[in-house]
Structures are given as C-alpha cells and as structure tokens.
Specification:
heterodimer; A: 259 residues; alpha/beta; Glycerol-3-phosphate (1)-acyltransferase; globular; B: 547 residues; 2-enoyl-CoA Hydratase, Chain A, domain 1; Rossmann fold; 2 domains; seven-stranded mixed sheet; 19% strand
Chain lengths: 259, 547
C-alpha cells in the first residue's frame, strides 16, 4: 500500500510524524476533486454587528466627519434639498435613493440630519461588499452596512432589513438593486418590505454623481451634485408592491425635475 | 419604533425541489501522492493519519446560511402551520396546554445560548398567555434517557421560562411513574402505546424538536420521547433494527414504521402541534471552522492553529481535556422552523436536513475509516464509555447512509478512539454491569436481548436511579448494543486504532496501534489493495450511496 506524503510541514508542526520522511516536501497540495469547489465559507463574510455598538459608532462618526464627508464635499460639491423636512418624518423608515454611482451612499449620509444618520444602516450587496471579512469590516466601519443578499429568490436580504427596522433602525436600500439601471430598473423588493412592515418610504434623488464616479470607471472628475429628499410615502391598505414602486418612481422623477 | 406584528419579512426556501446530494460532488476527494495527512478525531484528541493513495475522503458539506431573522421565522411558522390551524386559533382560556421538548441529547455539541428550544418555547408561551391559558406544563421528553439537571433545563429553556416554571410545571418525563403514565390502545400490529398522563390529558400538546439527524422528529418525537419501556419495546428490538436500513432513512426503517403506527394512536388521543427546527452543521465556530474543510485547503495560519490545538490538547490531562471539550458550545445557525401536523412538517424538515447533510457517493468501499469524536448523544457532560463508543461507531456512523451502507457487506470499519474502560458512575450505572456481566458472556445482540434485557429493564435499583438520580434507564445499554446490530451483522471486522486492548476484546473487536497496521489487518479480511473510504465526520452528514 502506498501512502500519501504531502503536507509534511503540518505534520511536523502538529506533533510526532508517524511516517519516515523521504525527501521532497511539496509546497502546494493539489488534490483531485470533481465539480466546483464549494467550500467558500458561508458565502464570504457575515454581518459584523459589533460595529453598530456605541464605541465603533463613535469612531465611525469621527471618521465620517474627518475624512469621508470632507472628501465627498470636495469631489462632489453636494447641494441638499428637503433634508429639513425629515425632522418631521417618522423613524424608522426606508430610504430609497436612485443609484448611479458608488458616491451615492456617502452623499446621502452626508445630507441626512445627524439624528437620522446615527440610526441608519445601509444595505450592501453581500456578493460585492461581503466577499472577504476585511471588506465587510471596512464598509461596516465607514458607512454602517449590513449584508444584503440580492437575487436568488430567497429574500434573505429583505428579512435582514426587516429585522433592522424592527430594531428601530432606518434602512437605506437602493430599489434599483444596482448602479445605473435607470428608471426601468426599479425592483419590487423595497416596496414589498415597506408594505409588509408598514414603514414609510422616503424617495431620494441624487443627481450628477454618475458624471463624477461612473460605474466601472472609478473617480473621473470633480463636479456638483444635488441630493433631494421627498416627503415620505406611506403604504396604503391593499396596495401592491408594483403600485408603491410606481409612486416611488414618480416621486423620484419629480425630485429630478426639481419640483 | 414600530413593534407591529406586521413588521416581519419572512424568507422562504425556494419551492424548487432539487436533489442536493447530486450537486455535492466536491465533497468527495481522492487521496493522491501529495495529499496532506487527514484529520481523525479520537475521543478528546486529534490525530493526523496518512491514507493510502487512491482512497476517497467524504467531507461534510459546507454549512448553509442560517435564517436572518429567527424570531420572525418562528412567528411565521406558528401563524401559518402546515396542515393545522394557526396556534392562536388552537389556544383558548381554561385549556390544558403541555409543551414537550427534546432533551439534552440534541444538538451535539450543545448549541450556544439562546437555545432554539428557548426561542420557540418563549413565543409559544407568549401566545398562550395572550389567549388566557393558565394551565401550562413543560416536559423534557427524554424517554429512558437520564433526567436533565436543573442547570441543563435552564440552559435549554432559558432563564425566564425556568424561573417561572421550575420545578412544579417544568420537569423531566418519568417513564417509570405508575401514576404518571397511561396506556392507550394498542396498534393494529399489537404494539403497546404508553404515554405521559399529563400529555394525554392535555387539550393540546406542543412538541418542540431539534432535527440534527434524519432519524429524529416526526412520529418518533412524541411516541418515543414521552413513551415508556413498554412502548419502546415494540420497536427497539434487534429484529427491527436489523431491518432498519438504515434508521437514518425513515422510509426504509422498520423502527420508524413502528413508531409511526404508535404516533397515529397518540395523535388520535391528543392533538399534537409539532414544531420542528433544523440547524446547519456549523459545529466548530469561528477560529476552528476549518476543521470541517479538506486539509488541503487549510491555510498556513489554520495549520499553525491546528498544530497549537493538537499540541496543547495532547499535553492536557484527561480530566482537563474532557472538561475543556464538554464546555465548548457550537454556534449553529437555524436553517428552518416548521410547525403544524406531523407528516407535512416532517417532510419539510427532512428536505432541510438533506439540503445540509446529503452527499452523493458512488460505489461502496471495502474499508471505511472514521475518527470517533468525544461526544455522542448519550454522554453530554459525561464520559464516553466503551458501549457508547460502539454505539457511536456502529450505530451512528455506520448508519449515516441512504441506499446502501458506505462499506460493502463483509467489509471492515476502522475507527480511531482510545475506548477507555471508564464509566460515569452516576449517569451510566447499568452500563457498568452490562459491560462486566453481559458482554463477558456474549456479544450476540439477539442472545443478549433474549437472555438479559428483561432483568435489566425491570431491575428495581436501576429504576430507582433513573427516577431519582441522573441515571440512564437499566435497559439503555441494551438499546445501544441493538443500535449497532445491523452493523455487526453486515461487517466482516471492526478495528479500533489506539483502542484499549481489554475493552476491545470484550466487545469482540480488534485493535491496532497505527492506522497502517489496521489497514494491513483489514487486508487479511477483504483481500489485497482494498478500496478505502474515509468518512470525515464530524460535522454530521450522511451519504447517499449508490452501489
């Protein structure tokens, strides 16, 4: 019987080796496997809930005020409209901006009143922001994200968002699901979340960010942007997700026209 | 904040039914010339062993993601059960409500608090109070297992429920209490059905289950958990277990057919609202999660961690090591909660179990190797004695298959375990006598059943210890032996690497010092150059084997 002979380092580290060493120590251990490897642990990193505790929250506020917001103001020069009205809106709510650029999240956070910002979590696509633990830590520390599983029909992401709403935190979700999908790209999930949880939906429009940091291009140039907030939309009895999404789309379009 | 009952968003598994095992080919890895050594558990220690080139290693599937919002999933299951009215509609003021729950044998190792039983029971109680139900009892459904200590009960149901109900309304099922047990009608096959009196006389029985293996749950929950020796005797027999192939596959299990017949009698006597929960197999938790993955994928950091772990456990005294291992709790995530009538609920539960645990393996092997871990269902916070080692290896590990066994008929199983001749004097008194008296005479399960079972089961001293101390029932070691009856009949030989010579000989097994010796011994049984498969358990999983 011939026995395998790889992984001598592990054997040496772990204790007495049962076999006699016979020469080469391979550095890599190829094994024959059939099919795709599915050991990516738990589909990447999980939620880093500790980043929402008071200490890390304080650090986040300091980091945002010292670095993130000044930098955003420098490149994007945002003009904020309608944020004062949020003082009268009920919390928690679902914040639903249009999505053109990675800059949208810092701009919306920057425009929010402090009482809202401290209680807002951002849904970040788990397939992009939560692939590695350090990605999760970075996004969690800077913009207070939670992993949002999009697609798959499992609705894990919406369930996680509902849990945050139940815990009294507002949730920032992009109804378009991804950047640059346009007015036709609105998906029904966010509306369904509002209807099922009975939380108001706040349409937000971010204009101009696509020119500064387009999808797939990185930071392109400086420019000016607008961040406009509309009055909250309250889910009506018997409304379907498609109807609420239509109202959201109309409200966002109105914001875009500057009405 | 809106604390409305509407504020729940429930994730549901997709309706698409797929045979998950088919997509799991990556779980079967072949050993090549340059493969690293393989991890074997051996009681409270870890070993690295070399497997022959060309052997297969079957790894557990990676852990599934848990539910994002468990509380909401429980509430949803209670609100929209399968095949029954919502729980709220079944509750009314003045009724007698009994909540039974699985005992300490599940899950393994115990899960980190809050236990899923606590989360479910708290929601059930909340609804019961809202409906004005006062007469509520909580029973640990432990059949002939040992009673749970107050600390263990507190851990399972949570401090809030414990403070309120213990000891008069939260207690262990007593299968030997003549006043606390009633006999229901026999089944059509003449099987006796006895059940806890409180459960029988309730207006509603809620059963909270944890489904770790496909053997559990379904009709077995109530009929066995709240049953007695008389009702267990109907199916815990050598004949039934030899014809349960395997008892991890309820459809092919004589044991389960019999329990289902008893379950129907029970359901006719008292309405039962089943709540079944499934967990993923994330048994090790954070820094040690790599132990469930193929060794070839361990990073340098993980290898160093493993080396540190192995070296430190090797240096610990047995007592310290046992204490350290038994103190670990697993960060299982809940993958599903289903409630309602027994059949539809259990169908969903088994699908969820398969989604986590099933691995497709093509072809049986001449020799199957496996490392036996430190804990089995019957030695939580206790000692794994030789009889329990046999039950874990030949009862559980051998039977973790659907279709045909992983090892061919007449093949050999090789386990790594020290098989120390050590018994817990409080928990396992009847095991000591079973080992010294019964196994010294014979190891043939049928003969043991015929000659010794009755005397142990009806022994007054064991009955006394079971009822008042924390001892397993006198008959329990027999059931452990029967659990392995099918394997004893099927296998050509059983070899324990590093096993205690005396204990192995007493049980009719062989022992070897190293895996190489064991494989050479196995060659004498199954022939030269045997096909070897390593069953890399734990974490728990099962194989769907095609011959």
């Amino acid at each position: 019987m011939r026995f395998s002979s790889g992984g001598r380092t592990l054997e040496r580290l772990a204790g007495p080796a049962p076999t006699s060493a016979d020469g080469r120590v391979p550095q890599r251990w190829p094994t024959v496997t059939a099919g795709a490897g599915d050991w990516t642990p738990l589909g990447g990193a999980g939620d880093e809930a500790w980043l929402r505790r008071p200490g890390p929250s304080l650090a986040r506020a300091a980091l945002q005020q010292a670095l993130l917001f000044p930098a955003s103001r420098f490149v994007a020069r945002p003009r904020v409209r309608g944020a004062d009205d949020l003082m009268h809106a009920p919390q928690p709510a679902v914040l639903a901006p249009n999505h053109e650029s990675d800059l949208d999240t810092p701009l919306v956070l920057l425009a929010l009143p402090r009482s809202w910002r401290a209680r807002t979590v951002v849904g970040a696509a788990s397939d992009r922001f939560y692939r590695r633990r350090h990605h999760a830590l970075i996004s969690g520390l800077w913009i207070n994200t939670f992993p949002f599983d999009r697609g798959g029909g499992q609705r894990r992401g919406l369930a996680a968002a509902a849990a945050h709403l139940r815990a009294g935190r507002s949730v920032l979700l992009y109804p378009q699901g991804t950047r640059g999908s346009g007015p036709e790209g609105y998906r029904l999930g966010v509306a369904e979340l509002c209807l099922r949880t009975g939380t108001p939906l706040i349409p937000i429009h971010v204009g101009g960010s696509a020119l500064i940091m387009p999808k797939g291009r990185g930071l392109d140039r400086r420019g000016s942007t607008t961040v406009s907030f509309a009055r909250p939309l309250y889910p009506r009895d018997g409304e379907t997700p498609a109807e609420l999404t239509d109202r959201l789309r109309l409200a966002t379009a109105a914001l875009e026209r500057g009405v | 904040m809106t604390e409305a009952p509407a504020a729940r968003m429930i994730e549901r598994a997709s309706a698409r039914r797929v045979r998950v095992a088919d997509e799991r080919e990556a779980c079967v890895v072949e050993v090549t010339d340059r493969s690293p050594p393989t991890l074997f558990h051996a009681g409270e220690s870890l070993r690295l062993e070399r497997l022959p080139v060309g052997s297969r290693i079957v790894y557990p599937p990676p852990p599934l993601k848990g539910l994002a919002d468990v509380e909401a999933a429980i509430a949803d299951a209670l609100d929209s059960p399968l095949g029954m009215d919502p729980l709220d509609a079944l509750l009314r003021p003045g009724m007698r409500l009994t909540i039974a729950f699985d005992d300490i044998s599940l899950p393994l190792p115990p899960m980190r608090t809050p236990d899923i039983r606590q989360r479910v029971i708290e929601q059930v109680l909340e609804r019961a109070y809202r409906a004005g139900v006062d007469d509520i009892h909580l029973i640990a459904a432990l059949a002939v297992h040992r009673r749970m200590t107050p600390a263990e009960l507190r851990r399972a149901v949570g401090p809030r429920v414990f403070e309120e109900f213990f000891p008069d309304r939260l207690y262990n099922h007593d299968a030997e209490d003549p006043a606390g047990v009633v006999r229901l009608d026999d089944t059509a096959h003449g099987e006796v059905v006895e059940l806890s009196r409180r459960a029988t006389e309730s207006d509603l029985l809620v059963y909270v289950n944890i489904n770790m293996v496909t053997m559990d749950g379904g009709h077995k929950s109530v009929a066995v958990g709240l049953g007695t020796y008389a009702s267990l005797r109907a199916h815990h027999t050598v004949h039934a277990l030899r014809h349960s192939r395997s008892f991890m596959d309820p459809e092919a299990s004589e044991l389960h057919h019999s329990a289902a017949r008893q379950g129907e009698i029970v359901e006719a006597a008292v309405p039962v609202f089943h709540i079944e929960t499934t967990l993923n197999n994330d048994m090790y938790g954070d820094p040690l999660r790599f132990l469930g993955r193929p060794e070839a994928r361990w990073t340098a950091r993980e290898q160093a961690l493993f080396a540190g772990l192995k070296r430190s456990t090797d240096r610990m005294s047995t007592k310290l090591r046992r204490a350290a291992f038994h103190r670990t709790a697993s960060p299982y995530a809940v993958t599903g909660v289903t409630a309602g009538a027994v059949e539809p609920v259990h169908t969903v539960t088994l699908e969820r179990c398969a989604a986590q645990q099933a691995v497709r393996v093509r072809g049986q092997a001449d020799v199957v190797t496996a490392g036996l871990p430190y804990v089995g269902p019957y030695n939580v916070n206790s000692i794994m004695n030789p009889v329990l080692v046999m039950c874990l290896g030949l009862g559980y590990f051998f039977n973790l298959y659907r279709g045909v066994p992983l090892v061919r008929e007449g093949g050999v199983m090789i386990f790594t375990h020290p098989v120390t001749r050590e018994f817990h004097p409080v928990h396992h008194p009847s095991y000591i006598d079973f080992f010294e008296e019964v196994l010294a005479e014979t190891t043939d399960a049928a003969e043991i059943e015929r000659r010794f079972e009755r005397a142990y089961a009806e022994d007054e001293w064991y009955r006394h210890l079971y009822r008042t101390s924390y001892a397993y029932h006198g008959v329990h070691p027999f059931y452990m032996w029967y659990w392995g009856a099918h394997a004893l009949e099927h296998l050509g030989d059983v070899i324990f690497v590093g096993g205690d010579p005396g204990a192995c000989r007493r049980m009719g097994f062989r022992r070897a010092d190293t895996l190489r010796d064991a494989l050479e011994m196995a060659e004498q049984v199954v022939g030269r150059d045997p096909s070897v498969t390593h069953f890399h358990c734990p974490p728990l999983f099962y194989c769907e084997v095609e011959a």
